[in-house]
Amino acid sequence: TTTHQSHDTDFKPTMASQDSDPSNQGAEARVYRGTFCGRPCVFKQRFSKSYRHPVLDEKLTTRRTIQEARILARCSELGIPTPAVYHVDSQENILYLEQIEGDTAKAFILANEGNAEKEQQIAEAIGNLIGTLHNNRIVHGDLTTSNILVRPDESLVVIDFGLTTVSQLEEDLAVDLYVMERALASTHPNGKPVLLPIIYERYAATTGALGKRVLQRLKQVRARGRKLTAFG
Asked: Is 193 exposed, middle or buried (0-12, 13-18, 19+ CB in 10 A)?
């Protein structure tokens, strides 16, 4: 999908319509559904944090909005399946994104629990997807099955790059995997023993030597995580 970016200050809101109630709200942004130039669209608006100094808050919020748009554009260039960026409103800190048809990987996994073929399919696809991100040193920051969408043709799309960074550090990539592991254990306690080995098998195949080093580092990250859990 072609990625269109615009930073026009003369953007006319009449080009877009959005629902008055957010369909989802996270720690950093509210997400609405609507249309943009006649196309189904997701509006992601970062909101201010009252505990921050207003000037600092405005700068940080704008910077993170633009950074997320740039990472999405970079993913598009690399062929990583992500929503297209239709427009960036850096004054209101809104991203206008392609609306992806389909459900979350979370819903797909829960609906197909015990179906070995479907579990193998989704786990392989997730492993390939994370491996492609990491090959390009993209640390997603919130790799949960709610942030991976499954299209009707069962191909995957990764969303929500609000915490994403680009890093050369294998430690950061290992922590990214650890976050995914913990999320999988929490959301899919029955599926994790089946899914995780397949995910890592495909991750290793996709990433080669880099993946071997990251998976080794992951063992250290896990050990630190266990200590933190044990001693608070």
From this structure: exposed
The tokens describing 2, both together, are 């072609």
CB pairs under 8 A, 24+ apart, for 213-222? 213/170, 214/134, 214/170, 214/173, 214/174, 214/177, 215/174, 215/177, 217/170, 217/171, 217/173, 217/174, 218/174, 218/177, 218/178, 220/174, 221/171, 221/174, 221/175, 221/177, 221/178, 222/178, 222/181
Strand partners, 43: 32, 96
Distance CA 198, CA 190 (A): 15
- Known catalytic residues are 142
Alpha-helical regions (H) of 7-160: 54-78, 105-111, 116-135
Q: How many other CB atoms are found less than 10 A from the CB of residue 3? A: 17
Kind and range of the H or E element at 185?
helix 170-187
Tell me how crowded residue 126 is: count the other CB atoms within 10 A of its CB: 25
Low-confidence stretches of the chain (pLDDT < 50) are 1-15, 22, 231-232
Distances in Å between the alpha carbon of 57 and those of 29, 47, 98? Answer: 14, 9, 27
